[in-house]
# Entry
Amino acid sequence: MIQKRLNKTARWMLFVLSALAVLSFAAPIFESILKVSATEVDIYGRFATPSLKHWLGTDELGRDVFVRLLYGGQISLIVGMVTALTAAVIGTVIGLVAGMGRGITDTILMRMTDGVIALPLLPLLIILAAVDLSKLGLSDQALSSEYISLIRIVLILALFGWTTVARLVRASTLSVLENTYITAAYALGVRRWRILLRHVLPNVTAPLIVATTLSIGNVILLESVLSFLGLGIQPPVPSWGNMLTNAQDLIWDNPALAVYPGLAIFITVIAFNMLGDALQDAFNPREYQN
# Structure
């Protein structure tokens, strides 16, 4: 039923995102076939023009731009989806507890949510991303991992990205609890956890999917901003944000180095946002009928 309601735009966005995901995670295959490297420095091959070997040329260190772009897509998609799903789980739990608990529980959780929303997000993320991890008691092995910055970004963004989902799930929960079949279930002695799993949770799934899809684009933008500022994904792991950082000093000499990752971010974020809007229409029967 939902498939029938998805318009052409949504299907094109699904195609675009699927193509981006397939290409991104096929980066090692392209690296092997083209016999290029995303990390190996080749000073003599720097700023090479697009060719059969280097489809988008090379950067200031002679690394293949196309393959780096694909690896950057892996990072952006992983950060976006994992962060959005983590935030959705946190927000869903808080929203369900607030909606089902009502009273003082609802008040405390919603005031906490309002407090998080009121925080200046970007400055706070910059401060947390700049924290020295060695002072947190992590092992040297963990600190030396090239993916530690990715894990940190996911945790930081998820820590403050759950508020919209929490409020949406709470509102949906309160709406569902007003139905007569919920009153009948309570009258028959059905336990609260059973009502939650059987009646409430299925009814909040649709808006939850829409909110999660829309949040992926925002997460990718925030990760790109932090990486651009040098506080996100750290080299040698390529990301679209740190590729833009490397390109900013070369914008007049080789503007394509900034265009490629910028265009990738633009297309990905727009695709997720348009897909989220389409899902919102698809899950809304009245909107579809109109």
